[in-house]
Every structure is written in structure tokens, then in C-alpha cells.
Amino acid sequence: MRSRDTLQISGPGADVQAPFARVVCGASGTRCSRVAVEQALEVAGGDGTVRFLAITDVRGVGPNRMAGTGTARAERALADARQAARDAGVAASTELCYHADPRRVLVDTARASDLLVLGGHVHSRGEGMFLGSAAVYALHAAPIPVLIARPVPGGRRLAERVMVAAAGVEGDRHAAQVAAALAARSGGSVTFLHVEGPGGPDVYRHLAEAAADAIAVTGTEPMVVSVRGRGPDALVALADELEATLLVLGSRSLAGLRALASVSERVGARARCPVLVMRDQASADARLTSRSSG
Fold this sequence. Notes:
By secondary structure, this protein is of the alpha/beta class. The protein has 10 helices and 11 strands.
């Protein structure tokens, strides 16, 4: 058995500040990229800015000439992104880069920003790394939050049904704050998803603290959907069943071999809906300090 309750957002959502003021978005002209452009603009809103980055990796000459994204296609992608930003009323800039490793450029360029948005297919994390997916690479390597953009089920808005993967740890709080802010700005709803499993006495205390943080933004008490099962598989199945428009997860910012067990990376690669992977609060605080002193 599991309880199923949803936090309905009410109140002046327009008064809630954008949780991500400076957004970097990859633009390549693919269908996934076009979805990323739309969702980056939605997250930024009228009080944020988006920097669209297209990377052309043309190599060789003559019969040996190869390109993942050619110059003409990259320029068209940036032109389309500029027009989309104008239509949405969002401040935006565009940049065309030339580099043999687009994934690395995207991650390095986004380091000083608040969010990196990339289009992503649905596949296993191992397959994504093998195929060189920029989205899966960013989940593994980026020090800032990453939004893996995918088409929203039913044509809904990105933050219409926001699900927060609440593990009952300290990192839940930052994820809950951001999820509540995104939902409040869009008039959406928030649901906490909790996969039951081995945990210490602090699990429910952390869940209560995360709920209090959501209340501070929305003014409404959130409830929790609880289910038993394996973490990544259960979260993906729940998000699909509840028709989530956005799944928000925390991350302990693990790297190397330890990251192979990262729930956030596996869910980010497999979920059918867009996935926002947060980073630890210390990293967020450091970015805010850098921004205020710059």
C-alpha cells in the first residue's frame, strides 16, 4: 500500500523569484535540443537569462571531413533559439564555438552559471556514456544543477506536476525549495516521492524539514507518496505512473567509480519525463557568494 497525496500550489506564484537566474542551454538543432531550448526559457522566465551555446566539431578536410554538428546547422539552431527567446520575452544571448569535444565545452562553459539544460534521450546510463551523450556526461561531470530536457507528457507545462525524489537526507531540502519555486511560478503542483528502505532515525526528520521548506515557498503543507522497491527503478516507475512533468532529485556530487551507483544519474538517464538533478547546498552557496562578489 502507498498513500498518494499532492501539494496543490496556490498564492502569488509570480512573486516567487526564479531559482535559476543564469541558464546555459545547448543548441544543436535536433528535436531534443529544441525541447531543451523551450524548457530553458520556461525555467528562466522573465527575470532570468539564457545563454544558448552551439558547438560545431568539424574535423578533417576533403573526403576525411567529419562533423557531429556542422556550422550551418549550428547557426540555424542559434537563430531559432534567439527567435524563441524573443517570442517568450526572455533575455538571451547566443554563442557558436568550435571544439572537438562538445560535451566538455558545455560543462566548462556552464560552471559559472546556475543551471545547464541539455536535451536527452531515454537509455541506460551505461549506454549513454558509451554513445557519448552530452546529457549523461553532464550528469556525471557538471558541478551545477543539470536539467535533462525531454518532451512533457500530455503537452503540459514543465512545472505543472513536479515530483521531488525525497530520500530522507539533508540534500532533500534544497531540491524541495527549488521544486516548490518552479511549481509556484507556474501554478503547478508538487508531490514528494519517497522510496522506503533501510534508513536511520533521521529519515523522517529530514522529510519533515524538506516539507517545511516547501511550505515556506507555497504556503501549503506537502504530502508524500511512499512506495517500496529499488530506488532508481521505483522512482522512474512512479514518475511515469503519476504522469510527472518534472522529476527533481538531489545529488551528492559523486564522481569516478563511486558515481556508478548514483541514483540521480541512473534516473536521469532512464526517466521518460524531464529530470532536474540538483547539487549539494554547499556548491549552491559558493556560486551565490561568487555572484555577489563579482
